[in-house]
């Protein structure tokens, strides 16, 4: 049954049109972890709750999918077409959401759950609590002037909602998975992309601009705990904001090229 479920998840079409290999791996690894937890918690040495974790069959058969890191970004000469397609969307929330992802480098899930209470407009600082972040670490992101302006405009348009990116369909709910928005921008721009490509584009742009590696890791909330030097570094927020502004400025130059 575990093997069949793994197969079904592998061949089932993904809503974003991307490979389902990662989804199949993740689902069965979570199942395995739950079974191990239940066995350890509720079984005994003499009588295990489940004698054999069925997911180990995938390991014995070497069935796990090998996942290769994607390298896709939105190229500089395509940014203008992508940005124009975003701006042509019917609802401003979809446009602002995708643009924010590109200019901030934030993760999709964290961005759609942003609340106004996380934003210090005076200090130009976004603080995402650790319980919201994938890394289980608080994210302290200095905002460029471009992002502050974008957020201010959003605040004026929807002052009654706690969510920065309020759903257009549900009352007081954040934006959903955004599948329709992504498909529409793909169609209008002729550019195939996923939301994680925007994060990868942000990091690539930062590297082109020679943003220090530790600063880039800090901006996207990547782990440096395995690096002794990274543990000792205390990065200045205002300095990090300068680099955020540098990336924003580079995007603005690129998207206005003719």
Polypeptide structure, described:
By secondary structure, the protein is mostly helical. The chain folds into 2 domains: 59 residues, no CATH class; 180 residues, Intergrase catalytic core (hpI Integrase, Chain A, Orthogonal Bundle). The chain is built from 12 helices and 3 strands, in the order ααααααβββαααααα. The protein has a 3-stranded antiparallel β-sheet. A hairpin with a 4-residue loop joins β1 and β2.
Task: Summarize the model shown.
The chain has 258 residues and is mainly α. The protein is 53% helix and 4% strand.
Strand order of the largest sheet: 1-2-3
Q: Unreliable segments (pLDDT under 50, ≥5 consecutive)?
A: none
- CATH second-level architecture of the largest domain: Orthogonal Bundle
The ordered H/E elements are HHHHHHEEEHHHHHH
- Overall 3D geometry? globular
Helix count from the secondary structure assignment: 12
| Text of the CATH class of the largest domain | Mainly Alpha
| The CATH fourth-level homologous superfamily of the largest domain | Intergrase catalytic core
Mean pLDDT: 89
The helix content, as a percent range, equals 40-55%
Rg over C-alpha atoms, rounded to the nearest angstrom? 21 Å
Q: Beta fraction of the residues?
A: under 5%
Question: What secondary-structure arrangement, pairings included, does this model have?
Answer:
Elements: H1 2-11, H2 21-42, H3 56-60, H4 76-87, H5 92-104, H6 108-112, E1 119-120, E2 125-128, E3 139-142, H7 145-157, H8 179-189, H9 195-208, H10 213-219, H11 228-232, H12 237-255
Antiparallel strand pairs: 1-2, 2-3
């Amino acid at each position: 049954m575990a093997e069949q479920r793994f197969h079904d998840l592998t061949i089932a079409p993904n809503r974003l049109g991307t490979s389902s290999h990662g989804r199949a791996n993740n689902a069965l690894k979570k199942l395995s972890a739950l079974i191990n937890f239940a066995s350890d918690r509720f079984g005994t040495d003499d009588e295990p709750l489940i004698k054999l974790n069925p997911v180990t069959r995938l390991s014995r058969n070497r069935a796990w999918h090998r996942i290769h890191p994607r390298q896709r970004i939105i190229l500089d000469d395509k940014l203008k077409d992508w940005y124009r397609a975003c701006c042509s969307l019917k609802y401003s929330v979809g446009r602002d959401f995708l643009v924010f992802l590109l200019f901030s480098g934030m993760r999709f899930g964290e961005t759609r759950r942003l609340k106004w209470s996380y934003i210090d407009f005076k200090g130009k600082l976004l603080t995402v609590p650790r319980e919201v972040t994938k890394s289980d670490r608080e994210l302290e992101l200095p905002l460029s002037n471009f992002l502050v302006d974008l957020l201010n405009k959003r605040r004026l348009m929807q002052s009654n909602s706690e969510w920065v990116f309020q759903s257009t369909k549900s009352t007081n709910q954040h934006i959903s998975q955004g599948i329709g928005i992504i498909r529409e921008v793909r169609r209008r721009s002729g550019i195939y992309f996923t939301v994680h490509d925007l994060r990868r584009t942000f990091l690539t742009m930062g590297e082109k601009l020679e943003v220090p590696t530790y600063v880039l890791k800090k901006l996207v909330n990547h782990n440096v705990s395995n690096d002794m030097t990274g543990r000792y570094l205390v990065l200045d927020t205002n300095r990090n904001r300068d680099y955020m502004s540098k990336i924003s400025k580079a995007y603005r130059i690129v998207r206005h090229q003719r």
